[in-house]
Amino acid sequence: MILLSNMKTCPNDNLELQRAKLKGVNIDECTKCQGVWFDKDELKVVKNRTDENIRWINFEIFQEQENKFGKGETSKKCPKDHVIMNVLQYSNSKITIEKCPKCQGVWLDKDEFTKIIKSLEKRIYQETATQYSIDAFKKLLEIPQEPAHIVSEIQDFLVIMKLFEERFTIEHPWTIEVSQKMYEYLPFK
Q: Integer distance in angstroms from the first to the last C-alpha of the chain?
């Protein structure tokens, strides 16, 4: 009889991972190297709960075919399945993650989660109003295609619209003065 263990081990130092909570999600963490294991989809949930402004950005670590990730070699084994993981580099960043090809879980070394969030936030500040209008239109088209997630899709759309409005007023400050003048002359207030 073979007994299977539910114990997850750190791919860096082979110690047992400890349960922890991050943004209300149960994750596994190494107390020595401070690396973190996210089961499939947990990283996306934590990312969405970290900063409302980045929740709409498709950060599909699990869709490598989109060519957003460069692949590399590693000797690290999945904490859960103990198979060799793939190393992925996100977009043009220097952020690398390890992903299990079997269970789709993700290993992040110390501070990599923070780097991911900062990279996504940087994207927010670099987008133009035109890019936001394109993003909003795409998200609007996605809403009817995702009936199971309609509330989430609408929330994402509203976040993009808020970011569009902020960026538009930054790029066109005269619009603030025009809207204030219009308000002054409204018959109802």
A: 77
Q: Are 51 and 73 within 8 A, CB to CB? A: no
**pTM over cut 0.70:** yes
**Domain spans of the chain?**
1-126, 127-189
Q: What's the one-letter identity of residue 137?
A: F
Q: What residue type is 92 in one-letter code?
A: N
**Count of Cβ atoms closer than 10 Å to residue 73 Cβ:** 7
In this structure, are residues 157 and 145 in contact, taking their beta carbons and an 8 Å threshold?
Answer: no
Give the tens place of pLDDT for each residue, 25-72: 999 999 999 999 999 989 989 998 999 999 888 765 544 444 444 556
- The number of beta carbons lying within 10 Å of the beta carbon of residue 48 is 19
